[in-house]
Structures are given as C-alpha cells and as structure tokens.
Design a protein that fits this description.
180 residues; mainly alpha; two-stranded antiparallel sheet; 6 helices
C-alpha cells in the first residue's frame, strides 16, 4: 500500500469544506437569537452544514454521474486500466452499453475531488454501483430539504424540548449513516 499523498486537489477540497463550515458558523451568529443555547447553535450548525455539504458536494457527484462519461472503447486509453464494471451482466447505466459514467472520467474541479475520494472508496469514482447513485440522489433531493427545514425551526425556536434534546441529536447521528 502506498503512502497517502497530499496534493492540490486534497488541499482545495478540504479548504472548500472548511470555508463552508465557517460560512455556516457565521450564519448561525447572524440568524439565531443571541440568547440561543449552545445546544441549539450546535444542532443548527450541524443540520445546515450537513445539508449544504450534500447539496453542493454530493450534488456535484450526481452531476458527474449523469453528465461525465467516456466511451467504453476509450477507457483503457484514458485510464491505462481495463474498465471495472461492477454492475450485474446486462445492466447498463442509463441504458448506454457503450459508455461508462462518473467523475473518474472527468477533468472538472469537482470530478477531481471525487477522483481523490475514490482512491479510498472506488464506488465514488464512477457509476459502478447504481445503489450508490440512488443513495446520493435520495440524500440530495429528499433529505436535504428536511435538514434545511430543521435548521429553520432552530432559527425561529419552533422546537419543543423533547425534539431539541433527543430527536435533533438522533437526526445528527443518522445523517452520518444514511439519508435522514
């Protein structure tokens, strides 16, 4: 196994995440009442940050899944490897038998970011596992509006004590594990 390499893509990706976190923190200072508890502020920041990460970053994954492709015949020329097809025989993404889709075949900054991430988990490099793409769609289109709604409820203080103390934290934990 080779040693990890920190390159410009790694630094730029982590910087983008850090900038988003700073923006969300500043937003919490601006939109939450000054008397908001630390717990409320943390939950607000988590839900808003998590939602924006999914919208911008996982949304870019979906963009690459549906719009970036390479003809099957050119994969070996471009990547130097035989195409790795993890879908069952006879199953083709978007019905295209002659194309492979995904960020691994792109050159945009977001494609490069997902290529970096795919070094640790190959499923994120391309549309090799339709469940990964479906999960990303579910997170970005269904769960994120819910997260934004929860952030708004923290902002206006429209949460009862049970929600603030239990359900809010449960949602934070589940967001790490699935599309909540």
């Amino acid at each position: 196994m080779s040693a990890p390499v920190v390159d410009i893509v790694s630094v730029a990706s982590l910087s983008a995440v850090a900038c988003l976190l700073v923006i969300v923190y500043l937003a919490s200072l601006r939109v939450l009442p000054s008397h908001a508890s630390t717990r409320t502020r943390i939950l607000f920041i988590w839900h808003l940050f998590d939602s924006l990460i999914h919208i911008f970053f996982e949304g870019s994954f979906l963009y690459n899944c549906f719009n970036v492709f390479l003809p099957l015949s050119a994969v070996k020329l471009r990547t130097g490897q035989d195409p790795l097809i993890l879908t069952p025989p006879g199953v083709f993404f978007m019905g295209q038998q002659d194309r492979l889709y995904g960020s691994i075949y792109g050159t945009s900054p977001t494609a490069l970011m997902w290529q970096e991430y795919a070094k640790a988990d190959k499923r994120w490099g391309g549309v090799r596992t339709p469940p990964r793409t479906s999960f990303a769609q579910l997170c970005s289109t269904d769960a994120d509006p819910r997260r934004l709604g929860r952030s708004h409820r923290y902002r206006i203080g429209n949460l009862d004590r049970l929600y603030r103390r239990t359900v809010g934290w449960i949602h934070c934990i589940l967001a790490c594990e699935g599309p909540w």
